Amino acid sequence: MKQCYKPITLNTNIQLDETETKIINLLNEYTDKYNQTTTTQPLTLRITGGWVRDKLLNLKSHDIDIGIDNLSGLEFVHNLKEYITIEKYENVFQNQYLIAKNPEKSKHLETCTVKLYNLDIDFVNLRSETYTESSRIPIIEKGTPLQDSFRRDATLNSMFYNLKTCKIEDFTKLGLKDLQNGLLRTPLDPLMTFKDDPLRCLRLIRFASNYGFKIDDLALNCMKLKEIKLKLNEKISKERINVEFKKILVGSNPIYGLKLINDVGFYQLFGFDDVEFALNDISFKLSTILNEFNNDITINQIELSDNEICIYYLSLILRDCGDLKVKFGKKDMYKSSIIVLENLKFPLKTSELVGLIVGNLQDMDFNDIYKLSRSELAFKYIIPYEENWKLNLLIHLTIQCLKGNDNAITQFKEFVDTIHSLQLESIYKTKLLINGNELLKIMNKKPGPWLKEINQNLFKWQLDNPTKTKQEAIEYLYNLI
């Protein structure tokens, strides 16, 4: 799958919304007042990074970072707060909190986040960075706009919006050009950029998949180097990798992102090295299938949360794990679950659901609606997955489509319709007609292992006889004695 970005003409005359206008007017008023009274270098404020990129693309952005050239974020916000109080601005300044990174060494560079006009704003010094071999956390010093722009992960993320001049500043001389062409390249040598902070590799892949950008060939080839993979493994925690990986999965084009991960060989870092990571072969077909899903009214109405989207793609990626279980601690666990839990650092509940889905894929059959009883359908397709039962069916549908089953969508819809007509969609919430204490009295026994089997039999009877009453359930139990 190739990137799908089409070169555009950028409108460098940034259009501000009402809230942005209020914020910038306030900051300019304060900066003018400050510059009139200061005996040091005048203060210049710039909006940095992602907001500038998105505005140039005519996209909405609420991620406003203000770069300050002479004060720390904390100093600036403290002074701004005093100004707002003196000038009697109302309903402007809300919460304030400090983000202190290694405060003993960089007190002068503290970032401060405040809420202005109900919008979170980060205030931070422009900076320069130097790195050590063992850490992606840089040694930070105050920097110039030029230095700050060249430390960024990509040229198209390195531009500033000068609050005073209302102009775009492109100190790398490549930001506007690369954004227009949808090209992701590093401001500095990509090998050194990635060695300093290997997480930038995944960030570029995320930007590529979310915006349809192309990664510069030189940067892409550097990602493939063994030393970069080693650095990524040494310097970046699995938890931090999970953050980027999840953003790729829930982004606008996860298939493209996953293919890039596969192309540069990062799949090994996620524990996919001994699993067939077959997205290269199916990426185009999967995109076609998902487009078909989007055009189907019934399927398109299925809303998935971000976590469910992750489960969907993780299950497809790990489908070849099947029902394989391995020892994990003192218990056997699905291999797919362990990969999701240990390598990708998703929550336990997410990993268990992926394992359950992948582990039972081979037993899925849309024709079961013609072969199984109401209780059998419930126990196989609804109760184990609870509210995720439809997600499980959607994953099975996708795999059937990948296998070339031309009737899969029709079968899926018939299956879902049957579940609803049998009123099974929420059956996992159903309680037994007879509770535990009542059951003990009826059976005239003490609690024990037998109780579980009786409960299962009662639940099965209840599912197959949905109109029966509690008294009829008691009669059923007497017949079991």
Automatic annotation (TrEMBL):
Gene Ontology CC annotations of this record: mitochondrion
SUPFAM superfamilies: Nucleotidyltransferase, Poly A polymerase C-terminal region-like
Domain CCA-adding enzyme C-terminal: 405-475
Reactions listed under catalytic activity: a tRNA precursor + 2 CTP + ATP = a tRNA with a 3' CCA end + 3 diphosphate
Transmembrane segments: none
The protein's Enzyme Commission number: 2.7.7.72
Molecular function terms, GO-annotated: ATP:3'-cytidine-cytidine-tRNA adenylyltransferase activity; CC tRNA cytidylyltransferase activity; CCA tRNA nucleotidyltransferase activity; metal ion binding; RNA binding
Its job: Nucleotidyltransferase that catalyzes the addition and repair of the essential 3'-terminal CCA sequence in tRNAs, which is necessary for the attachment of amino acids to the 3' terminus of tRNA molecules, using CTP and ATP as substrates. tRNA 3'-terminal CCA addition is required both for tRNA processing and repair. Also involved in tRNA surveillance by mediating tandem CCA addition to generate a CCACCA at the 3' terminus of unstable tRNAs. While stable tRNAs receive only 3'-terminal CCA, unstable tRNAs are marked with CCACCA and rapidly degraded.
Protein name: CCA tRNA nucleotidyltransferase, mitochondrial
Annotated organism of origin: [Candida] arabinofermentans NRRL YB-2248
Upper lineage: Eukaryota, Fungi, Dikarya, Ascomycota, Saccharomycotina
